[in-house]
Design brief:
245 residues; alpha/beta; Rossmann fold; nine-stranded mixed β-sheet; 7 helices; globular
């Protein structure tokens, strides 16, 4: 893990960009974080490149830091400055064509788009977690917040250091991931925009039903993908405060 830049934001948050095996990432920490007072960590999931997503990512990170957490994210395979995948681009094209034609999105398209991404991204997230937790000012426990929801599912199953997850139900979910969700046992807070134009609502409801967690809550708000109310962030903050502090 190599830090490439750093700056102190106007609210005192320390923002540091890093690379890990050629993968770009960003770490945000409160000014109070130190080896004598390490802070819990929230991994911020997202669906795209860091530069494009930066305004939303930094807003989420600042909110987490204000609650006493460090926050970190990495760039997904095939996004931003990372090399693209011909197979993934074809799957996206097929998805756009089907949606534009008003056709049902078949399982085969979803599988081609999501499953290879999960297989590649999850080991990268775990490597990033190794590196970040080696810093003296960062401690456990760890939470995962955001999307792609299938990445969050896999991490919740295979990564024992993640103690709780707040998942954004805003991406297509392969049926294989629904089955995998039955193995999830950590506390879950799932956010659903009821009229999300890019989401299959019934698949999300089926997924929520499949989660094996004894503690799980579904928070549904009216409106489209970009209409998440401020109260949703406050609810998620209370969820992580209960489980990571």
């Amino acid at each position: 893990m190599q830090f490439t830049s750093g700056q102190r934001l106007d609210d005192g948050v320390l923002e540091r960009e890093f690379t890990l095996g050629g993968i770009p990432g960003t770490l945000w920490t409160p000014g109070s974080a130190s080896a004598s007072e390490p802070v819990p960590l929230i991994l911020i999931g997202h669906p795209g490149g860091l530069l494009r997503m930066y305004p939303r990512l930094v807003a989420r990170a600042r909110h987490s830091v204000a609650e006493g957490f460090a926050a970190a994210t990495i760039e997904l395979p095939g996004s931003g400055v990372r090399p693209g995948s011909t197979a993934a681009e074809q799957a996206r094209a097929d998805l756009r064509r089907a949606m534009g034609a008003g056709e049902p999105i078949g399982d085969e398209i979803i599988d081609r788009l999501v499953l290879p991404l999960v297989d590649k991204a999850v080991p990268e997230w775990r490597a990033a977690l190794d590196a970040i937790l080696s810093l003296p000012e960062i401690g456990g426990p760890v939470g995962y917040s955001g999307g792609v929801i299938s990445i969050g599912i896999r991490l919740a199953v295979v990564e024992p250091r993640i103690a709780a997850a707040g998942l954004f139900a805003g991406s297509f979910v392969p049926r294989a991931m629904v089955e995998e969700a039955r193995q999830v046992s950590i506390p879950l807070h799932v956010l659903l925009q009821w009229d999300d134009e890019g989401n299959d609502r019934q698949r999300v409801l089926d997924l929520f039903d499949a989660f094996g967690s004894k503690e799980k809550s579904l928070h549904a708000n009216m409106g489209g993908h970009a209409g998440v109310p401020q109260s949703a962030g406050e609810d998620a903050a209370r969820f992580f405060a209960r489980h990571l502090k």
